[in-house]
Structure formats: C-alpha cells, structure tokens
Write a sequence for this structure.
C-alpha cells in the first residue's frame, strides 16, 4: 500500500505569477487552464499520497496530448516547463513526468519519495525486441520500498513489478542522480537540461 499522508510541507509555487507567464506566452485564453491546475492543487492538499498521485496522473494524462519535440518545439530534445506544457497542450514523456513531479512536490510529497526515471520501454508485447527511450515518474513510500509508476502510456498507477516492459537506465530528482540500480547519488549538475529547466521555471514563478 502507498503511504497514508504526506507530511512534509514544501514552498508553494507562485501560481498567480505562473498564470501571468502562461498568458504572456500563450494568450489570455489560457486562464482556464491555469484555473484547472489551481483547483487540482487546492483540492488535493490534504489528501493521502495515493490520492495525490492519482489526481496528478489523471490531470496531465487527460489534459495533455502526446506529441514529440520535433512536432511541438521544432527541436530534437526539449524539456518543457509545466507552464509551457499547459500552454502547448502537448508534450512528450519527459514533459508529462516533469509536470507530475512538480505538481506532487507542490502538494507536499517529499523530494526523497519521487524520482524521474529514464527507461528503455519494450514496445509491442513481452516477446518484442523493440525498445524505445522513455521517461516515467516513480514514487517510493519508503526508501527501500517497491516504487509505484506514473506513466503517460498507461492510465493506472502500477507497482514496478507490474511493469516488466520498463528497464531503468538512470533516475534523478533535485537531490541527485542514480545510474542503474546504484544507491550512490551523483551530482545533478551533470544533467544540463534539468538545470536549464529549473532556471526557466524560476523565471515563470515556480519555487523549485
């Protein structure tokens, strides 16, 4: 079972500033989109971790359509901020996972319980030899617990043992980066796209 309640309080994002940034970048019509996010964060503050995970997962999987970076940003690889993701209404696996990560952080789930994980995803069934690079978000109720997987490919949140199609490559959060199954955290500075993402988010109003 997932833990009952999140007890760590994290600094809230400046949602009004984020809304202003969203409107500046994508137009006044975006006010409704930010309103939905505000409602999600307000209504979910006192829920259990499990309920927070489900609501964040459902919100972004429902609200955002999948599109690759070439289509959305005319780039080979771009990590969108949650504001950019909501403004475009489309993103790839990294964008889904990052948005869920920061929504859950804002809901009070501790950093140590969340990791963004790059995986090789088996495509086409259990016997397929076709793998695709993919990113998911993992939640750990305890440091040594089996993680629960939030994914844009599958709507329900499943324990890692029920996702044999995923082969972890490396994981990270704002505290560090872990390669393979290693327990030793490495400096997150090695991940330049993460640093660039955080800088853009701070300019938009996120307190990360």
């Amino acid at each position: 079972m997932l833990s009952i309640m999140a007890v760590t309080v994290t600094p809230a994002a400046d949602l009004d500033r984020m809304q202003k940034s969203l409107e500046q970048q994508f137009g006044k019509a975006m006010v409704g989109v930010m309103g939905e996010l505000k409602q999600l964060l307000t209504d979910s503050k006192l829920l259990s971790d499990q309920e927070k995970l489900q609501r964040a997962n459902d919100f972004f999987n429902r609200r955002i359509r999948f599109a690759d970076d070439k289509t959305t940003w005319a780039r080979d690889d771009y990590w969108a901020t949650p504001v950019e993701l909501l403004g475009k209404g489309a993103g790839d696996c990294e964008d889904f996972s990052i948005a869920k990560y920061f929504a859950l952080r804002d809901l009070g789930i501790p950093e140590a319980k969340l990791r963004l994980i790059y995986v090789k995803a088996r495509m086409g069934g259990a016997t397929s030899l076709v793998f695709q690079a993919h990113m998911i978000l993992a939640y750990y109720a305890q440091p040594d617990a089996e993680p629960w997987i939030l994914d844009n490919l599958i709507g329900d949140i499943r324990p890692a043992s029920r996702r044999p199609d995923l082969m972890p490559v490396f994981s990270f959060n704002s505290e560090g980066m872990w390669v393979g199954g290693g327990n030793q955290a490495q400096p997150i500075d090695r991940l330049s796209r993460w640093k660039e993402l955080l800088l853009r988010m701070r300019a938009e109003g996120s307190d990360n």
Notes: Residues 1-11 have pLDDT under 50 and may be disordered. The beta strands are 65-66, 90-91, 114-123, 130-139, 148-150, 158-159, 166-173, 176-179. Helices lie at 15-26, 31-44, 49-63, 69-73, 82-88, 93-106, 192-204.
